[in-house]
């Protein structure tokens, strides 16, 4: 296939690499210079999102936030200006499910199709080609693009219609934030009570409280490795989508709201670009204790 890829940051760069490794023709654009490793593999650099859309049958977008996707698609020299009937746009960024439906309607009006396909699994999963991919869109288009998704991910699910992939991703981010908070509270409690947090984590990994987050983020909390990974500002963006959506649905997400506040404590300490496991630092401030500190 002729594939276009827009947004070559932490996630987009390795994902685009898998597409070209899979034998597809690749055209790319990023608003900062695209990584040289993609050019070395044979990717062609374009000077705008429009040029990508003109030269590809399937256009993949992987940028930070809802306004960024809107700009890529509909700003001057955007994807919409370069599309012709029959092409497919796949947005793999994590953005608003509501805006997704609006974007999809405008793309469909051009005779094209639109799928939302946000991912979970982080930079590690992007590099390994083992992402979980949550898709919203028509079954026919899903079948057409599935071979491309197979190059980037392992657990690939058509959740439902347009927007449902993004809704699943918001649900994912609620679980991740609340679990980081739970792991942080537990390890901080154990540490302040005088137990070795590394041994506690090891003991819990075999039992009912075990989780990928206890494994990966728990280790980060103990080893104090807070370089991202997944940045707090991106997780705050996702929890905003959850909280705004919940307000429209007239429902409460009380613990999502408190996790958002804990992330804001980190932001106030200059931590917007820390890894999201650093939420534990907000808990440590309140406990006047640090995991691993002798008390
Ligand atoms: P990033 O900030 O590292 O990369 C985004 C890239 O998009 C940058 O290179 C930027 O220059 C480019 N970009 C932004 N606006 C653009 C525009 N108008 N035109 C062209 N290029 C533009 O972000 P990331 O970590 O790769 O995350 C991308 C998306 O994936 C986000 O929605 C994020 O929430 C989601 N996500 C990230 C992770 C992770 O662990 N980093 C995990 C799962 C999902």
TrEMBL record:
It comes from the Bacteria. The active site is at 169. Residues 163-283 form the 3-hydroxyisobutyrate dehydrogenase-like NAD-binding domain. GO terms for molecular function: 2-hydroxy-3-oxopropionate reductase activity; NAD binding; NADP binding. The keyword Oxidoreductase applies. Its EC number is 1.1.1.60. PANTHER family: 3-HYDROXYISOBUTYRATE DEHYDROGENASE-LIKE 1, MITOCHONDRIAL-RELATED. Belongs to the HIBADH-related family. This is 2-hydroxy-3-oxopropionate reductase. It comes from Paradevosia shaoguanensis.
């Amino acid at each position: 296939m002729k594939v276009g890829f827009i947004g070559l940051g932490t996630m987009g760069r390795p994902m685009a690499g898998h597409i070209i490794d899979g034998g597809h023709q690749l055209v790319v654009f990023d608003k900062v210079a695209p990584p040289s490793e993609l050019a070395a593999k044979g990717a062609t650099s374009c000077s705008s999102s429009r040029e990508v859309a003109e030269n590809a049958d399937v256009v993949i977008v992987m940028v930070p936030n809802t306004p960024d996707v809107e700009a890529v698609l509909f700003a001057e020299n955007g994807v919409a200006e370069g599309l012709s009937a029959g092409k497919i746009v796949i947005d793999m960024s994590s953005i608003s499910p509501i805006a997704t439906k609006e974007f999809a309607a405008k793309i469909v009006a051009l005779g094209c199709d639109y799928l939302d396909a946000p991912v979970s699994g982080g930079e590690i999963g992007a590099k390994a080609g083992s992402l979980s991919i949550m898709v919203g869109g028509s079954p026919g288009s899903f079948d057409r693009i599935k071979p491309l998704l197979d190059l980037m991910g392992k657990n690939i699910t058509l959740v439902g219609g347009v927007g449902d992939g993004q809704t699943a991703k918001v649900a994912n981010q609620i679980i991740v934030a609340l679990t980081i908070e739970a792991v942080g509270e537990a390890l901080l409690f154990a540490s302040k009570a005088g137990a070795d947090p590394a041994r506690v984590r090891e003991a819990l990994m075999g039992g009912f409280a075990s989780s990928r987050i206890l494994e990966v983020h728990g280790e980060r909390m103990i080893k104090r490795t807070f370089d991202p990974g997944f940045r707090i500002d991106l997780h705050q963006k996702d929890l905003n989508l959850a909280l705004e959506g919940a307000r429209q649905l007239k429902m409460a997400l009380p613990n999502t709201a408190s996790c958002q506040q804990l992330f804001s404590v980190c932001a106030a300490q200059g931590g917007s670009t820390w890894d999201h496991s650093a939420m534990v630092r907000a808990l440590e401030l309140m406990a006047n204790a640090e995991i691993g500190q002798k008390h």
